[in-house]
Amino acid sequence: MGRVDEASGRIPIDFLRLIGAGEWDKASAMVADEFEGYLPQTSEQMTGPEAFVGVLRLELAGAEAQIQNHQFSYDVWDKEYEVAVQVLVTPTDGGPKRYFIGFFTVDREDLIGGANLYFAECGSRPEARRELTNTY
Prior knowledge:
alpha+beta
């Protein structure tokens, strides 16, 4: 059985750093064979480490990925971590920046067992919100 500590909750962070460094085989080794993931915006399903790493390889190729925020919690009942990660993706060719938000589960064996991934381009603030919000 895996650790019940902060190191287990950081596994998706370590995984994404390997992806960013182009360490595809090492990243794949951190994903459970039974992995199931989803891209809800496009109704796509990913099954297995090869599909998951392949999608990220396509989506993040030619870009710098900067982890900006992450949170995790431990589900005592299911004995797995739930990890949310926010990543700013900046294309090296000067293309539009995007955000990648991932919701991961880390199983008892400290492997990534599932994920829901969302990609969204950065844009300008809508005029209707200008009086309600500030930019940073």
